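Before drawing any conclusions, I needed to go through one protein's amino acid sequence and its backbone structure tokens, quoted below without any editing.
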Amino acid sequence: MVPPEAEQLLLEATSTLDNRSSWRAAADGLVALTASVDSAGPLLEALGQLITGPRPRPRTPPGRGGRPGRPARQRISHLVARLATRAVATGGKGPRAAALRASELLGGAADFLPAGTHLFAKALDLDAEPAQLLAALQRLEALHTGRPVLAAVRQRPSATGSTPPVALETPLVLLCAVERLTANAGCAGGLFAVALTQALGARTGWTQDWRTQLRALRRHPHPDVRETALALTTAVE
């Protein structure tokens, strides 16, 4: 267990913009703390300070020995990238819970909505309880409504598409969720339906249900969704 004094040092080194030498190592330390479910507090506090804290002007132009441009944003991007990687790589409850809480914090600040949706997508658990999974997918779609470019960038909400085929515990629930996203006829929901169809189709070895779903997406009302679905292949010739 990390002593509170060490947590405070990591927090201060990460959020103090005058610290230009050790903030990355400190930020990585805050992310490492999330291995424990109840240890995301310092990381969330650092994000909060970086979002709302002062933005001092560089004394000299960037690239001429002065402070880099937008130092707070750079630190937030670093924390988000590290936390997203940890949530996907470990699949542990701690990093995933931290990513979800961080996504709420970032999503509440208009300038950091893309970072918040990125974390939320990376923390999506396709093996969650049916009600939780459906609610998470609906929220993910809502976050991207009216943001087609952002939806296109985030159209791979999890890394499960690269996993070998396995038997899913709730295949009908997942299929129902994808069908609902497809039926909404919107660009964001359609792109996520394609991403989930790709991931879950691969995990099930492309059973008939998922092939049927892919064909439906290839007839989607939105051209970007159709083109994305047509680009998918279920087998390599």
